[in-house]
Amino acid sequence: MNRLPSGVSTLAMWTYYPELLSTPVPRYTSYPTAAEFGDDVGSADLEAALAGADGDVSLYVHIPFCERICWYCGCNTTRNNRAHRLRSYLDALHTEIALVGERLPATARVRRIAFGGGSPNAIEPVEFVRLMVSLTQTFRVVDPVISVEIDPRSVTRAWADTLAGVGVRQASLGVQTFDLKLQEAIGRVQAGHLIAECTELLRKAGIRSLNFDLMYGLPGQTLAQLEDTLRQAAVLEANRIALFGFAHVPHLIPRQRQIDATALPDQAERFTMAARGLDLLTDAGYTPVGFDHFALPGDPLAQAAVSGRLHRNFQGFTDDPAPVLIGLGASAISSFPRLLVQNEKNTGRYQMMLSQRRLTATRGIERDADDRTRAGIIENLLCAGRARIPAALLRTASRCLAPFAERDLIKMEGDVLILANAALPYARTIAAVFDRYRIDATRRFSAAV
Amino acid sequence: MSSCAQCSARESAICQSLSDADLDRLSSAGRHQTLQRGQTVVWQGDESLLVGNVIDGVLKLSVTSAEGKDQTLGIMFQSDFIGRPFGAKTQHSVVALTDAHICTFRRSSFDNFARQHPELEHSLLQRTLIDLDRTREWMVLLGRKSATARVASFLLAMSERVGSAAEAGGAEALRFELPLSRQDMADLLGLTIETVSRQITALREQGIIETPGRRSIVVLDAERLGDCAEEA
């Protein structure tokens, strides 16, 4: 472990072309992206899509509460400072579970349940178990893979017992950085020993696949600090690492105004950090997964990446092949082959609608045949680094692809577009060429690196 | 007045960990109900989500679908905690399968009390985890296609819940009184009464169970009963 990069390093392989990264691009956790959602799609569309769903279905349950709010976070979340607010929200969530369950055909089988937020562990452990009871008696849940996002600052013994008792095997910890000064800079302080202790507790509770969310590009972050964080994550044997570029977009996330932006690394520095991250983690034995995830070879995510079974959904890169994802909770997005639809974001309105026993879907987009073709291309480019391109699409895209081809970042083999290894930092930018909604995307998204 | 001192579920109910003084305080927030066979638990007030203890008797938790179909989601026995979040606004109902006594609390007051009493909070969590396990088992039971598997799973679950050790032909066995009629069993399992009777007869003829009285069941061979329960 911690070998110095040797042989062909990423730094040597990746070339920085600032001109190719000048336009911010979406993360493509869906296509079309949430930016294309309109209010012409709503509950009636969700009901129709639910009625038509069968086979494997995955559930996402959103808990939009945290014990403390970090300055950088763009998630839909509020502080859980009032117990009754949590309770009203959970009551609404139970009602939503029942309503969705009534509309889903008996042939639909739930194989995966993901809890995210916010911090699911901001609720009482018993409330989490009650949600599981509700889901179990409502849906046809078959040997589910259950995953939970965890705030390491509020992992208690009771929570560890609960995860073990429920049979949760996958967890994701928001670590971001092990560096105390950087933690202060983003308003999320958690000493290094806390992560180590939490990791041990979760391992004992039976968590087999543990993910660390980490960040580069933090205000004032040096390459050495990033390397140290990555090494510590590797020492703790995180099974998965998601290494995100910090997105400073205070015009979109007002709470980020608390962050001192003067010390933000510039794009060239961010590029170097991303490259160094890939180098260091592959040297430490991790398999790269998509453009920002890493996994140890035994982990299902690494196996999916290696065998071409990787997918992309709202949680990032995943080995989940289910064609239908049902989002439960305020702001949660459901994904069907022909429909993307988002629940009411405002928790007050979400609860009000459910008190009237109404589904809360308020925005979304129908996916037509063209959307589905493009969604497939974008997902394949990001997950597998290659995609078959229909001739008509290739003709319209060729002008935009030329700059990448000239720099040997892409090539065509027949009708298959193939990304070179060195194209990884440009993968989202290349995928965006096939996005018919991206005309002037400036300011709307974060930079690809 | 507290009736907790006389409560027959006292030794095994969720509140067993509390001191007499705390029990008095909790009891004053609770409400006792006597239910007759077939009676639905009456919720007080529209919004109140209730939790409760089964003091004695057998109850079923069921849900009525939009098409009016009734499905049983679980069965509760003495000292079981009815801890699932449901109430008048949901389509869940709790129905007494036998004459029964329960004590109920508003969930919010029970949860608040639990938060101030870590020992109760701990038992609440443990009970809810057990409830999850039982829900999972029950849903698996209902998912079984064959009548043999459903009846065998049911008898196995009952023997685990209410069975007591008995001697039968020198071997160890589990004996229990079925708290339900064949018709109740048929309804719970989604089978006809004839099928239930036929399955019980078949299990008896194979030497897996004995039926010494109208409602008595003795499990002679739990392992083979388990095999039957696993049948597709």
Q: Describe the biggest sheet of chain B?
A: 4 strands, antiparallel
In CATH terms, what is the fold-level topology of the largest domain in chain A?
pyruvate-formate lyase- activating enzyme
* Poorly predicted runs of chain B: none
Residue ranges of chain A: pLDDT <50 for 5 or more in a row? 1-8, 440-444
Number of domains of chain A: 2
Number of helices of chain B: 7
Return the average pLDDT of chain A rounded to an integer. Answer: 90
Secondary-structure topology with pairs:
The complex is a heterodimer of chains A (449) and B (232).
Chain A: H1 10-13, H2 43-51, E1 55-63, E2 65-66, E3 78-79, H3 83-103, E4 108-117, H4 125-138, E5 141-150, H5 157-166, E6 170-176, H6 180-185, H7 192-204, E7 209-216, H8 223-235, E8 240-245, H9 267-283, E9 287-289, E10 293-295, H10 300-306, E11 311-313, E12 316-318, E13 324-328, E14 333-336, E15 339-343, H11 347-355, E16 361-366, H12 369-384, E17 386-388, H13 391-406, E18 410-413, E19 416-419, H14 427-432
Parallel strand pairs in A: 1-4, 1-13, 2-3, 4-5, 5-6, 6-7, 7-8
Antiparallel strand pairs in A: 8-10, 9-10, 11-12, 14-15, 15-16, 17-19, 18-19
Helix pairs in contact in A: 3-4, 3-11, 4-5, 8-9
Chain B: H1 20-29, E1 31-35, E2 50-56, E3 59-64, E4 70-76, E5 81-82, E6 92-96, E7 100-106, H2 107-116, H3 118-143, H4 147-162, E8 164-168, E9 171-177, H5 182-189, H6 193-205, E10 209-210, E11 216-219, H7 222-230
Antiparallel strand pairs in B: 1-7, 2-5, 2-7, 3-4, 3-6, 8-9, 9-11, 10-11
Helix pairs in contact in B: 2-3, 4-6, 4-7, 5-6
